[in-house]
């Protein structure tokens, strides 16, 4: 009987406790942002406790940051949360990547970028998209506010071990389809809760060919399938990504030797297995109000099967039988921890190079971090967007979640590279259609969705 990747990482972190009951795990990396940290810091303060391992904690500002006029925070709640993080980092001796800082960006973008996200670690954050970091072969999951305080005080966390699910991906990705399409197609097929209670591992030839950025996109959306943890076995692609980054191990050879033990043994049994072939994959878009309400770009919006479908259609302002190209679009948003990395911007820019946005479209391009922003400006990618008529913004969560000035107006449709199309997600009454960066960019040029595989 072999052992899964998940179990191997888990076993190296258990301090105490039996399987089936909560077990105490050591935490190697704790990521913090301004939304879910004020209360835990207050708890520490009241208990006269220190932050146990500032050296294993990374703090950045992301959700509330205005992406146009970064120091001009008008919203009262945003101001409070941001000021609290500034003060807490000062009081608890924690470096902060604050607004304007070189290291600032979306928490799930900066962890990997700084080399803090590494294979075989346990990584937590008070944020549901923490699974992103699992792309490196780490166990990474979102935690609640009281758990954040526990990690701050003890650098440990109580967890009941989830079951494991292996998702084997086979086949060659068709031209201009991406890992975003794979994960969206899987969620469309199996629903938004098939992963509940499971730690997912993606594996197979298709996964091995993917870049780290593409693997992160897939793990990022595991929570949209109900799973708190998504993982990919670390390999040479992973090591090469980590090497040379600010927080990468000094002795990479030793690190690689250690990391290379973390893979699922051939004889290991997942509790559940899924196989998914991408040979005929089409670009995916969502038509409704959860990520499972999705269709391939060459399909029509589906028939109404239950009252959830009816409610989704009512909210989104569409009817069954609508072609993708007939979905009206007003805005496009390229950004979020799902798809705001440099590679995502390159894919989007390829669709816009030398072209101009359709007159009906307002476009916001929001790099996930300042480092990405700088790189895109140096390479000319930013200029492609600007020449096309897009607004090139400063890093933050932006229109992924309407906690800052980037809000899609009520009734307007947005093609978005983010991960959630919930009611009101991008602003009260906003209508979101999720897709890959290439699809969103191409839609901006055409003024409506088009099949990028035919381009
Ligand atoms: C604000 C934060 C707690 C939230 C999350 O947990 O994911 C946000 O990042 C989101 O994407 O909805
Ligand atoms: S970019 Fe969106 S999904 Fe990611 S952490 Fe920010 S709000 Fe959450």
Automatic annotation (TrEMBL):
Pathway assigned in UniProt: Amino-acid biosynthesis; L-leucine biosynthesis; L-leucine from 3-methyl-2-oxobutanoate: step 2/4
Cofactor(s), names only, from the UniProt record: [4Fe-4S] cluster
SUPFAM superfamilies assigned to the protein according to its UniProt record, in alphabetical order: Aconitase iron-sulfur domain
UniProt entry tagged with the keyword Metal-binding: yes
Secretion signal span: none
Pfam family, one: Aconitase
Residues that bind [4Fe-4S] cluster: 337, 397, 400
Cofactor note: Binds 1 [4Fe-4S] cluster per subunit.
Molecular function as annotated in GO: 3-isopropylmalate dehydratase activity; 4 iron, 4 sulfur cluster binding; aconitate hydratase activity; isomerase activity; metal ion binding
EC number: 4.2.1.33
Gene Ontology BP annotations: L-leucine biosynthetic process
Xref: InterPro entries: 3-IsopropMal_deHydase_lsu, Acnase/IPM_dHydase_lsu_aba_1/3, Acoase/IPM_deHydtase_lsu_aba, Aconitase_4Fe-4S_BS, Aconitase_4Fe-4S_dom, IPM_dehydratase_rel_enz, IPMI_cat
Assembly with partners or alone: Heterodimer of LeuC and LeuD.
Family membership: Belongs to the aconitase/IPM isomerase family. LeuC type 1 subfamily.
Name of the protein in its database record: 3-isopropylmalate dehydratase large subunit
Organism of this sequence: Fructobacillus ficulneus
Lineage: Bacteria, Bacillati, Bacillota, Bacilli, Lactobacillales
This protein's encoding gene: leuC
